[in-house]
UniProtKB/TrEMBL annotation:
Residues 15-479 form the Major facilitator superfamily (MFS) profile domain. Pfam families: MFS_1. One of its GO terms (molecular function) is transmembrane transporter activity. Keywords: Antibiotic resistance, Cell membrane, Membrane, Transmembrane, Transmembrane helix, Transport. PROSITE patterns: MFS, SUGAR_TRANSPORT_1. It is found in: Cell membrane. This is MFS transporter. GO terms for biological process: response to antibiotic. InterPro entries: EmrB-like, MFS, MFS_dom, MFS_trans_sf, Sugar_transporter_CS. One of its GO terms (cellular component) is plasma membrane. The chain crosses the membrane at residues 15-37, 52-69, 81-104, 110-131, 143-162, 168-190, 202-221, 227-251, 272-295, 307-324, 336-355, 361-384, 455-476. It is a multi-pass membrane protein.
Amino acid sequence: MPDLTTSPDPRRWKALIFIALAQLMVVLDATIVNIALPSAQTDLGISDGNKQWVITAYALAFGGLLLFGGRISDLWGRKRAFVVGLIGFAAASALGGAAVNTGMLLGARALQGVFGALLAPAALSLLAVLFTEAKERAKAFGIFGAIAGAGGGVGLILGGLFTEYLNWRWTFFVNIPFAVVAAAGAIAVIHEPEGSRNPSKLDIPGVVLATLGLVSLVYGFTRAESAGWTAGSTLAMFAASAVLLFAFVLVERKVKAPLLPLRVLTDRNRGGVYVSLGLAAIAMFGLFLFLTFYLQVVRGYSPVKTGLAFLPMIATMIAGSTQIGARLMTRVPARWLMGPGFLLAAAGMTLLTQIDLDTSYTTVVLPGLMLMGLGMGTAFMPAMSLATHGVQPRDAGVASAMVNTSQQVGGAIGTALLNTIAASATTDYLKSHAAGAADPKLLTFQSLVHGYSTAVWWAVGILVVAAGIAVSFITAGHQGGAAVASGDGAGAEEAVPVMAH
């Protein structure tokens, strides 16, 4: 175990620049392709049935392999995992940008997901082992949290700009300079603390069960969207996922060097963070999708204008993360930042349920997005820090992977779940109003808007549940004071203001 009294790495702030750059690249990749998808579909002749796979191939590989990636970074060393992840991600992006047919594009997206699953946990766990002093940790996680939260919105803006002024292929090529700069910087300035690796053997049965279980879960939700919730294939996927993940827990209890040590999960605070972050991701990713469709299809915004419409949310998210979350997390317990943060975001979403055919951007959409950004920024920051706080350095990679896993799986579930709710609400509205409709096109738009606002109401409810879980499960004090290594996190929930590191 590292001697935590040694002086911190003098190059840690430079390291943060490159870690944050890599995180931005991974997060924006989840949304940048959404706006470019219609152009890519036309260009490569992708069928409607295969269209969703451009998004799903990335989500499945990324969500399914995150725990494996986290453990690899604990075994290999975070710096090596980080650099390999960056180089692989750049290569996969080059392949996607040069795609000449559907298969090549889908393969590139899956490869991006594979290397993203290595890169994302390595980035977060590097932060966890480089920044151990409370105030510095708060500042570093504030910057990282702001980027992690705002990256999706940045992806929408860049996707719009590239699609409108260049070509959809640039939504892939843009990753190459990001990755090259981040890898070169990492090689030059990142120095991993001695003794923070976990040299134990890799738990192969755990890797297989966790990967297949998570892939089945994400794919089950994707099937539900296209085939329906009660279709045999959907139910089979959910059943397979439940069996595989249950078997995974049994294996982890028995093996000597588990992929996911259950001590990481059973700590009440970390468990609360993972569940509430997953729920928040369900609400947020679903909303991004509907608002993008609403602005482009119903209001007729161009891709660039749609992307720019999200800018104020990014600004308030960065403000919430760096000015509220980072400043208060060393003085206020995490639950009193996360709970109110999620409720503030829910209030912003409640405004967005009021959208209509001619809703004013300035009076409804803008304040809704700003409140949502402020709330999410305030909540994400202490959550990401708390998820890796109190973890032994040898488990930092896998604890970081769980944060990413809850967000990725939440995002995939949110897109499928809320899409299904919106689609059935749209159909019901169309059927019930078809008889007296004078203008069929107008009715179609009214039905779409009704579907969107119904789904956003569900997202509001999900955020309220996330706030309730954060306040009731997370009992840790504020994340101030000196950091001390804790054995299994068991003592972390006692009423002490200092959380162990």
